[in-house]
Amino acid sequence: MPGPAPDERMRPKGRRNTQGIRVDPEAEVTHEPRQAVLSALVKHRPGVLSEVSALFSRRQFNIESLTVGPTVDDDTARMTILIEEPEPGIDQAKKQLRKLVPVISVRELEGEAVRRELALVKVSGEKPDDVNAVADMYNGQAVDASTDSVTVEITGSKQKIDAAIEAFKQFDVQEIVRTGAAALERGPKTLEKDV
Amino acid sequence: MSERASVPKEEDETEPETEQEPVTTGAQSVIRALENAGTDYVFGVQGGAIMPVYDALYDSDINHVTMAHEQGASHAADAYGIVTGDPGVCFATSGPGATNLVTGIADANMDSDPVIALTGQVPTEFVGNDAFQETDTVGITQPITKESYFAADSDTVGDDVSEAFALADAGRQGPTLVDLPKDVTQGETEVEPGAPETPETYEVPEEADDENVQEAAEALAEADRPVILSGGGVIKANASSALREFAKEYEIPVITTMPGIGSFPEDHELSLEWAGMHGTGYANMAITNTDCMLAIGTRFDDRLTGGVDSFAPDAEVIHVDIDPAEISKNVYADYPLIGDAREVLRQLFDAMPRVPDADEWRDQCQVWKDEYPMDYDTPDDEPLKPQYVVEKFSDVTPDDTIVCTGVGQHQMWASQFWEYTEPRTWVSSHGLGTMGYGVPAAIGAKLAAPDQEVVCFDGDGSFLMTVQGLSVAVREQLDITYVVLNNEAVGMVRQWQDGFYEGRRMASEYPWIPQFDKLAEAFGARGFTLESYENVEETIQEARDYDGPSVIDAHIDPGENVFPMVPSGGDNGQFALNEDHLDMI
């Protein structure tokens, strides 16, 4: 004997949000995206970068920058990954990263971690002294000069580099290259050892 | 050791070791690694770049099954892995051989089936030059494996295979691949492969944190409306016995996912069978109304949950999984228990303070069973109903019979109307939903369990995709009964077109379909046809009695659709029992 039709059946009042979390119908919780810096130690071998970047694109994690470079140990490399995601997405990104076989360890760096980016800015060489003056303001320095152009190197936080580039715009910027962030925890803490 | 259905297992497998010749090439090291890992069968297809490996196989005791297509090799290996619990092995050459394996590898990845794929590759010096039959196999398969290895050296290629084998089997099982350039396998080496060990960066959790277990057990004991949701991970972890003990001791109703079919006996009073899009009405009512769900080894696939907003909306979720990345991925876990399902079930068993007070709830589940029974009409004046064929088969076959399927309506009927009581007897393609899985999967299943009966339900569309595998079943003299539930259509697509596309049946109906009984005979198998209710039992008997592969072409009612049904993204509690209900939702 068929029981009640679909719309006549007993059903609970609760519900879940899109992240599968039970919500109070009166007070829905939403997670705002925030920026997170993930630092990962990985095996230094071919294919690791593509494996990590493919993971981020396949799982639709919003990635802002990814830098990779050697460490003191020839067999390992460090990746610094900036993502912008709601809290559950950041958790999920960490877990999925840890699951990759060549990934040795993953940690989210805290807000006060040391973060540096680098930019090279090539501007017109017409006013070299003015260019130097602006570079000084941002602790930058000219690293190459010709009759037509000056190339300036700036390191620092993202905000500082954004501001510097804005300031250089008065000199007819010809080309810019920027790295993503490199970051390390402050104090004695490292990825290998908790202090 | 895996929890195989009632198959007597030899505890002691200490057959005298024959003296092994030392390896002289990379290829021999590859084969030696497989031998060391206990490989009995390899499913594969020859080809240029993999020839050195096959040449080394010539001297090995490992049995090789030459498949008709590499896709079949990966599916057969997958089914072998499901039934034995140990990694199934498949071989293919470079280029098209490797790309043909891809569907089966992706299938294994979605269902966490242990598979190791070894692919030939062009010699290292040609890699990157677009050489003949070159393809970036590691690049293609990296996202669909636990790890894909590119073998770089004859001295280490054996270690690569050993590690890939161990990794496929460890923790949450899944596929791995080793790409074998021809110069690496042909190259000389005297290095024997190391023992199968997982990479040092791969951690396998065992027991869950005791404090978390305690809290979860208390929440479950407190519940008024508890359920257990048993996923494929329960079978993979050989935790079916532990699950049965736990559920019976604490009298908690058990729902399975589709891959979890067989983890709990469907004839037990606590069983609500399986939930999800085409799950039973009672399972879907229980999953919707529970206030505490113990979910074990499931990844909360969307075909199970429907829309997550309406999935078990009142339930605290205790999620047991060996893969931390599954915790709170789709459904938030109030009590995450990371560990091996069998270990954690034992921990929970000990930690439970009491049997939950849930008499009313169990009565309610029984009411739902009465209200939404899995039945169907069999009017004499209508064509044969597929459900009837499945049920008749289920009635006469032993409990440990292995059922394989393709993907589509027939798969749903085979899962709904067969009574499963043992783990590793349900062999199907769930996550990837691969039409064509059935024919080769039955080959892998039969070789994995030669003493168990193997029945493969297939659809006409699904069967046609891998029918060439029949040549393998005949050549290997495998006693498999294939049952084609033939409705002359890609039935599931047609059902959706009728339900959600105003009956616009685009590319879902076959104006002509081969005569499968004659096709079977052409392959050297026995062929049968069923047109009506008249001779169903006799035909089943004859096909089962035939010692070799047989095909029953069962012409079923083309108008029959699969119900209950929760529309994609819908509310599990609002399943439709018929077409009219679909309009109400």
Automatic annotation (TrEMBL), chain A:
Pfam families: ACT_AHAS_ss, ALS_ss_C
Catalysis: reaction(s): 2 pyruvate + H(+) = (2S)-2-acetolactate + CO2
Pathway: Amino-acid biosynthesis; L-isoleucine biosynthesis; L-isoleucine from 2-oxobutanoate: step 1/4; Amino-acid biosynthesis; L-valine biosynthesis; L-valine from pyruvate: step 1/4
CDD domains listed in its UniProt record: ACT_AHAS
EC numbers: 2.2.1.6
Broad enzyme group: transferase
Role played: Catalyzes the conversion of 2 pyruvate molecules into acetolactate in the first common step of the biosynthetic pathway of the branched-amino acids such as leucine, isoleucine, and valine.
The name this protein goes by in its record: Acetolactate synthase small subunit
Source organism: Haloarcula quadrata
UniProtKB/TrEMBL annotation, chain B:
Residue span(s) of domain Thiamine pyrophosphate enzyme central: 213-348
Annotated ranges, domain Thiamine pyrophosphate enzyme TPP-binding: 406-553
Superkingdom to which the source organism belongs: Archaea
Name of the featured protein: Acetolactate synthase
Every Thiamine pyrophosphate enzyme N-terminal TPP-binding domain range: 25-138
GO molecular function terms listed in the Swiss-Prot or TrEMBL record: acetolactate synthase activity; flavin adenine dinucleotide binding; magnesium ion binding; thiamine pyrophosphate binding
PANTHER family, per database record: ACETOLACTATE SYNTHASE CATALYTIC SUBUNIT, MITOCHONDRIAL, THIAMINE PYROPHOSPHATE ENZYMES
One GO biological process term: isoleucine biosynthetic process
Substrates-to-products reaction catalysed: 2 pyruvate + H(+) = (2S)-2-acetolactate + CO2
Keywords, comma-separated and alphabetical: Amino-acid biosynthesis, Branched-chain amino acid biosynthesis, FAD, Flavoprotein, Magnesium, Metal-binding, Thiamine pyrophosphate, Transferase
Pathway as given in its UniProt record: Amino-acid biosynthesis; L-isoleucine biosynthesis; L-isoleucine from 2-oxobutanoate: step 1/4; Amino-acid biosynthesis; L-valine biosynthesis; L-valine from pyruvate: step 1/4
Membership in a protein family: Belongs to the TPP enzyme family.
EC numbers: 2.2.1.6
Cofactor binding, per record: Binds 1 thiamine pyrophosphate per subunit. Binds 1 Mg(2+) ion per subunit.
Region of interest called Disordered, as start-end residue ranges on this chain: 1-26, 184-209
Gene Ontology, cellular component aspect: acetolactate synthase complex
UniProt-listed InterPro entries: Acetolactate_synth_lsu (IPR012846), AHAS_TPP (IPR039368), DHS-like_NAD/FAD-binding_dom (IPR029035), THDP-binding (IPR029061), Thiamin_PyroP_enz_cen_dom (IPR012000), Thiamin_PyroP_enz_TPP-bd_dom (IPR012001), TPP-bd_CS (IPR000399), TPP_enz (IPR045229)
Comp. bias regions, Acidic residues: 10-20
Stored Pfam families: TPP_enzyme_C, TPP_enzyme_M, TPP_enzyme_N
Keyword Transferase: yes
Cofactors demanded by this protein: thiamine diphosphate; Mg(2+)
Coiled coil location: none
